[in-house]
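[Discussion] Sanity-checking designs against the backbone

I'm trying to build intuition for which residues belong where. Below is a structure token string of 388 positions. I'd appreciate it if someone posts a full sequence so I can compare it with mine line by line.
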């Protein structure tokens, strides 16, 4: 049975406030994925022990059976208290729900407790050098030998790839197959001799991503989700889970960034500039539109009718956030271009501006999103595809 909103929200608020005002004050406000890994692994373990690690999961799988309203309320509180971004996100929001929906009983028993408790971190093995938004172009291959899958290939732009314990990896298991056919969805341990991880340094100076090289890497034959050849359908289902409640936290973090930007504008006098004031107002309006649109999409009554409208969300928020990054630099002026300390680390607003350059690329490039809106949402003719 789902927990009432008030009870769960009060419980979460009390625990988060005590933790962030006390033993975890040092991780408060950390929004990137590459800072204070050790402390944030401790945070995930404590969050899991408090029963707040995977509240949306069914109780029988280690969750709290929370309704959408419960999850939204707690997510908003989490962001409002400036709790650190979750390095367990891929496991809790993507791997876990996929295993719950499509995994075997043995897979549920093996993997779900480690995810919900924060003991095991996960990464997503989708993108490749020639298969980014075009996931159907995956070249990484796997063959079944002596009760194990043998994997060869390369993945790139793997978030948390340097520290994750496991990855769900889309591979081609049918020789000679093309496009979405012949793909399979494997659960692969990353700490093994057949895998080399290399960090990808971003222009922010962080290394949230990694390249993964598979050279005879192995995973047990039973670590396939669904059947061989069903990888495309399961991978698409995983991406559907990504558009869920976790985006509430993202939008609340956007609100924190906007509030910080406004504070700087007031302090340095830029708030008196009528053009800057108008751009700030436009940013606030855009954020409110996002919030109300997301809540409508998540509501039980509207979800079915808003399937096509939901296609626009990624395109909208990524463009909005890039514009906020531009506004942050204009508000800061020259001060935003000066790095502090011996490591030349920029301030939070400049870091946000640099990181936002990638928003219109990752998780589906804007060009791909426009195709989805046109073809799936509006029913327009499909873009011509090549035969290669």
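Best answer:
Here's mine. Compare freely.
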């Amino acid at each position: 049975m789902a927990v009432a909103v008030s009870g769960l929200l009060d419980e979460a608020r009390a625990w988060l406030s005590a933790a962030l005002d006390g033993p975890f004050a040092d991780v408060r406000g950390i929004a990137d994925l590459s800072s204070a890994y050790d402390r944030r692994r401790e945070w995930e373990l404590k969050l899991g022990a408090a029963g707040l690690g995977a509240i949306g999961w069914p109780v029988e799988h280690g969750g709290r059976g929370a309704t959408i309203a419960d999850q939204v309320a707690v997510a908003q509180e989490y962001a409002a208290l400036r709790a650190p971004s979750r390095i367990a996100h891929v496991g809790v929001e993507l791997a876990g729900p996929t295993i719950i929906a499509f995994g075997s009983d043995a897979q549920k028993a093996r993997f779900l407790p480690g995810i919900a408790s924060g003991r095991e971190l996960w990464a997503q093995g989708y993108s490749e050098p020639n298969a980014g938004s075009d996931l159907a172009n995956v070249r990484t291959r796997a063959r079944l030998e002596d009760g194990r899958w043998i994997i060869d290939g390369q993945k790139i732009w793997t978030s948390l790839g340097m520290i994750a314990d496991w990855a769900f990896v889309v591979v081609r298991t049918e020789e000679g197959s093309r496009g979405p056919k012949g793909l399979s969805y494997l659960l692969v341990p990353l700490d093994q001799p057949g895998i080399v991880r290399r960090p990808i340094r971003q222009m922010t100076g962080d290394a949230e991503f990694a390249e993964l090289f598979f050279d005879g890497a192995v995973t047990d034959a039973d670590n396939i989700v669904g059947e061989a050849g069903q990888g495309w359908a399961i991978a698409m289902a995983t991406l559907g889970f990504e558009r869920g409640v976790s985006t509430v936290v993202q939008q609340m973090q956007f609100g924190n960034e906007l509030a910080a930007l406004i504070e700087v504008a007031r302090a340095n006098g830029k708030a008196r500039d009528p053009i800057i004031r108008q751009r700030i107002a436009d940013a606030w309006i855009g954020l409110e539109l996002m919030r109300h649109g997301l809540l409508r999409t998540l509501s039980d009554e509207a979800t079915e009718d808003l399937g096509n409208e939901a296609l626009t969300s990624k395109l909208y928020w990524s463009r909005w956030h890039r514009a906020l990054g531009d506004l942050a630099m204009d508000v800061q002026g020259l001060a935003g271009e000066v790095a502090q300390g011996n490591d030349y680390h920029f301030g939070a607003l400049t870091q946000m501006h640099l990181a936002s350059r990638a928003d219109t690329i990752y998780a589906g490039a804007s060009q791909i999103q426009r195709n989805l809106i046109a073809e799936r949402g509006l029913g327009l003719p499909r873009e011509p595809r090549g035969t290669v």
